[in-house]
Amino acid sequence: HILSVIDTVETYRDSLSGMIDLYLSTTSNKMNEIMKVLTIISTIFIPLTFITGFYGMNFDYMPERHEPWAYPAIIGLMVIMVIAQLIYFKRKRWL
Q1: Are 40 and 92 in contact (CB under 8 A)?
Q2: C-alpha span between 85 and 15 (Å, rounded)
Q3: Are 47 and 80 in contact (CB under 8 A)?
Q4: Where does 1-95 show beta strands of DSSP type E?
Q5: What is the pTM of this model?
Q6: Tens of pLDDT, residues 10-58
Q7: Which of 12, 29, 60, 84 is the most exposed place for a label (fewest CB within 10 A)?
Q8: Distance CA 31, CA 34 (A)
Q9: Residues 6+ apart with CB under 8 A from 48
Q10: Phi and psi dihedrals of 23, rounded to 5?
Q11: Is residue 70 a contact partner of residue 64, using CB atoms and an 8 Å limit?
């Protein structure tokens, strides 16, 4: 009887170990998906931050600073960059 109980306990221990491994694997996969989304968001905002930081400086000798089309052109460039990145990420199946 003792050997039967020992075998049963070992079976339960192996089953519990398998369940813990399954739980940790599922948790790790969820965390990887979250990290992927956060990485894509930061990848989209890094060039936008650079452009706004560059044009936010007080340079007097930038030729496009005094043109009436400069502000809409920069906004348009940033929108095109975001759209291009989203299309690229969709084609790579990262989104």
Answers
A1: no
A2: 45
A3: no
A4: none
A5: 0.69
A6: 999 999 999 999 999 999 999 999 999 999 999 999 999 999 888 888 7
A7: 60
A8: 5
A9: 78, 81, 82
A10: -65, -45
A11: yes
